Hints:
The chain is mainly beta. It is built from three helices and 21 strands. Strands 1-2-3-6-7-8-9-15-16-17-18-19-20-21 form a 14-stranded antiparallel barrel.
Amino acid sequence: xxxxxxxxxxxxxxxxxxxxxxxxxxxxxxxxxxxxxxxxxxxxxxxxxxxxxxxxxxxxxxxxxxxxxxxxxxxxxxxxxxxxxxxxxxxxxxxxxxxxxxxxxxxxxxxxxxxxxxxxxxxxxxxxxxxxxxxxxxxxxxxxxxxxxxxxxxxxxxxxxxxxxxxxxxxxxxxxxxxxxxxxxxxxxxxxxxxxxxxxxxxxxxxxxxxxxxxxxxxxxxxxxxxxxxxxxxxxxxxxxxxxxxxxxxxxxxxxxxxxxxxxxxxxxxxxxxxxxxxxxxxxxxxxxxxxxxxxxxxxxxxxxxxxxxxxxxxxxxxxxxxxxxxxxxxxxxxxxxxxxxxxxxxxx
Length: 349
């Protein structure tokens, strides 16, 4: 019980700290008159990964038990044994290509280590100007990625801790912004063994600032004066924008788990630094660890959200005792922005 109380204290401490960080942001001073939406960079870090987690409405911080755990709660990565590979793809809104790949392995007495890549690619688009609105003949694209190394360890049979260090980069045409960030997470199996408590904080790092030759220009500082320097090389001064800091705390409960049937109920509360708090919820039914059906709801209580119902399922194919594959699918509704379809392949060996 003392470990359970300790975990609660840690979660409360992190929540208080994240709230303090949000108050330091000028955009969060007067929530009644100033919105925080659009005040952070690297928005792709908020999209989520893994079809299973998406179909559960993103309520995954206390259930994270596949390679997508390195995104939702790196502590869940410690609960995996053996080696695991996950590949995920979705054609996101506006035909943006969104991919996630992760590999991890457990090492006796050391813990689990992993490597993952999250990447968003807009594809090529035409360069348009006021003088040439139909296009100049040039092409540009936007590319964002996060390359991260993960480490997690079971400190006891009930308590796990995990962390990520990651390189984040956003690029548009010839300009880019880069930074190093961190994630941390905890996962605790309560004295009621069917109930798990998880908490994580993601994207702890410095501000991102765009740099590159697209912001360079040449200017005559005194066009009406003769005898001065005609051309001065200069650059636009760009602002730095904070990371999308996200604090999650959640519960997962095995309502039924008798070897044949398993029903899990999950809920998360999320506190971002660039929007209002919201709640995710999800439920999963699994038959003999072979086939699963899932449903969830995302961003409940968030003002003006277009996100909502999610659903999906999976099929497990066990080739032998040590080799198994799982195929996951998720559907996510985005209201007036239509919907997205998520596909994930998992390999355990």
